[in-house]
Specification:
17% strand; 266 residues; binds iron/sulfur cluster; three-stranded mixed β-sheet
């Protein structure tokens, strides 16, 4: 765990729906077994460290953001907070690095989209509610406690995440649910969508990405959950599974009158 001084804080995004990425942390102590952000390890000097065990924070993130803010504002576009980390992982409650950066986003009124698995995001509703454009996204795909603890040991519980979505929605904030990854054999997708639908403005989904150095850890966790990793992978990477997941999300969103923005596969 260490403090670093970064050279840049905003990068161009290759993700759908957003234009820039903002990541004030390197690593993520939510330690999701399926996390594909671990591919970043080779670019950040953490090649031999297990994902979830290291964390650097970019202490100069607010200053860097202030330097880049005018340029981003002028070009336009949406910045995602947390593409290869979670901006609201536990250390954020102490460092308040994301919060300090939100003050800059607010000052320049730069449109942002947050994606998190942490209820800590509610701490910043006071700032987020002052942005002209802001999306608050909660990532969730499992409700079963035992499975969720095995797959996402450091993240907030599913019920906490749903509670935060509801609170944001009740406050009139723009919310979304990111159903990701959609797991074969851990079939709670329909249940999850029905739980979150009343509290979101739109929904997106994602198929597991198993080709970024996460397979060894993830297949071990699947075995612990008594799921055959070979079967899981075969199904997860099939076109049929993608089509089925996309169709299910579309249908459920229609039923609940929630906008569906698609399911992504890598
Ligand atoms: S919260 Fe996101 S970035 Fe963090 S480990 Fe989980 S999937 Fe990866």
């Amino acid at each position: 765990m260490s403090e670093i001084t970064a050279k840049t804080i905003i990068t161009k995004s290759k993700l759908p729906e957003v234009d820039y990425c903002f990541n004030p942390y390197i690593g993520c102590t939510h330690r999701c077994a399926y996390c594909y952000a671990r591919f970043m390890s080779r670019f950040t000097g953490h090649t031999n460290e297990k994902w979830g065990t290291y964390l650097d924070w970019k202490i100069n993130a607010p200053e860097l953001l202030r330097e880049e803010a005018s340029r981003i504002k002028k070009k336009g576009g949406v910045v995602i907070l947390g593409s290869v980390t979670d901006c609201y992982q536990p250390i954020e409650s102490k460092l308040e690095l994301t919060r300090k950066c939100l003050e800059v986003f607010l000052e320049y009124q730069i449109p942002i989209s947050i994606l998190t698995k942490s209820s800590l995001v509610e701490r910043d509703f006071d700032l987020l509610s002052q942005l002209k454009y802001c999306e608050i996204g909660i990532s969730l795909s499992i409700l079963n406690k035992e499975q969720q603890k095995a797959l996402e040991p450091g993240a907030s519980s599913p019920m906490e995440r749903i509670r935060v979505l509801k609170r944001a929605f009740d406050l009139g904030l723009n919310t979304y649910a990111f159903i990701g990854p959609i797991h074969p054999f851990l079939g709670e997708t329909e249940k999850v969508i029905r739980e979150v639908c009343p509290y979101v403005n739109f929904i997106m989904g994602e198929i597991p990405n198993l080709r970024c150095g996460n397979w060894k850890d993830f297949s071990q966790t699947l075995k612990e959950l008594k799921i055959n990793p070979v079967d899981y992978r075969k199904v997860a990477e099939s076109d049929e599974f993608y089509k089925k997941a996309d169709g299910l999300l579309k249908k459920l969103c229609e039923e609940c009158s929630v906008e569906y923005r698609g399911t992504f596969k890598h």
